[in-house]
Amino acid sequence: MTGSRRRATVDRCFLVAVLLAFSWSAETGADMIGHGGPVKSVQAMPDGQRVVSGSFDYSVILWDLGSERPIETFVEHDGAVNSVALSPDGARVLSASDDGTLMLLRLSDGAVLRRFEGHIGKVSSVAVSPDGALAASGGWDRMVRLWDLASGKAVGEIEGHDSNVNAVAFSPDGSRLLTGSYDTTVRLWSVEDGAQVWKQPGHDFAVNSVVFTPDGKLAVSASTDETVRIWSIETGEALAKLEGHEGSVLAVAVDKEGRYIASAGFGGRIFLWDLPQRAFIRALRGHRGPVWTLTFAADGERLISAGADDLIKVWDVRSGASLGLEAKAPETSDAVAEAGRGAALFRKCAACHNLTANGGNKAGPPLHGLFGRRAGSVPGYRYSEALRDSTIIWSDATINALFTEGPQEYTPGSKMPLQRMPNDDDRMALIEYLREATAVDGAQ
Questions:
Q1: Could you tell me the pLDDT band of residue 335, with boundaries at 50, 70 and 90?
Q2: Which of 89, 121, 141, 166 is deepest in the core (most CB within 10 A)?
Q3: Whole-angstrom Cα distance, residue 130 to residue 403?
Q4: pTM given for the model
Q5: What is the C-alpha to C-alpha distance for residues 77 and 79, in angstroms, rounded to an integer?
């Protein structure tokens, strides 16, 4: 594994954003649009004004909640980002990826502070201790690993799960660690010595998400068995089983006051529960497809969700209303705004790319001069090996062929998590728009 660097290519980031954009329609509302694939994890910042998300598109995005727009996009992993966790002060984010690594980023400038390697295979979950000193990660190697964030060194291993570790969470005092696994168990561990405090095989299928309540007295878990369960931390006893979901429950969250549980999963609906009464309150509907992640904003009055439809949505907890802003026109020139369907399709690409010659790199380099350019050839940008020496020249024909055949066929080995774009009219509209918007000195 090489040192940290931006490995997403201009082609991958550009195509992730474009190809997956076609699954979105105006019916969903504006919300936070910018990821080019399912959003696997979202965390609310302590300031209550921003959130951080990680996605199947390999990126981590810092968002402004007020404007619902990306502040900055970071692409440092070589695989899907499955989980993100914030430092207590919100200055850093730790991300876990399919590429087997953890990455600690400083959010103010995107600097990579630490890269953690040790898991064999996918890292599915990560958590930061309340004092910001330690991180815990769970992976598909069945291991839980502890890391010193200051030194970057591994400081402990917790072994015992019989299958993939899907979820990890620190207790509010940092002394205990809660884990959930594909082996159907929820387990409590001592952080100091890695000893197992209790093991509870109370779910019928995989455990996908775990969380402590703010007072540290209860644990809440979500499972493929379609239930949410509440456990006593002191005894490991199952105290309640919350039912109603249709399909796997993938995510669970508790607000900082311990008033609400939120749960969501394959059914696409989000359930709100009264935690003290352990009673159902209401269902929130708006996502299309599985909801992978949930977090409460710092004020506890807003719930943030994200999932397979690439969207991050914000909800009013008390009313259940979606707080998404009205759809906004792309922030481009008047000529671009008038370009119709092609400009609309480009909206997601703008999260990763500028169109102007002096726009600089975002998650990907600028698309200025795209037509006639060899793939993987923008000076100063770091490309993946699959496209670094490509002989493809981008043109109407090659872009059309890539969208028609899909990257698995047209650019094999590029690791692009993409889909084909089957609609002929959409392909032509996007290509026409790109030709005009990226033209050099007015060339067509």
A1: very low
A2: 166
A3: 45
A4: 0.75
A5: 6
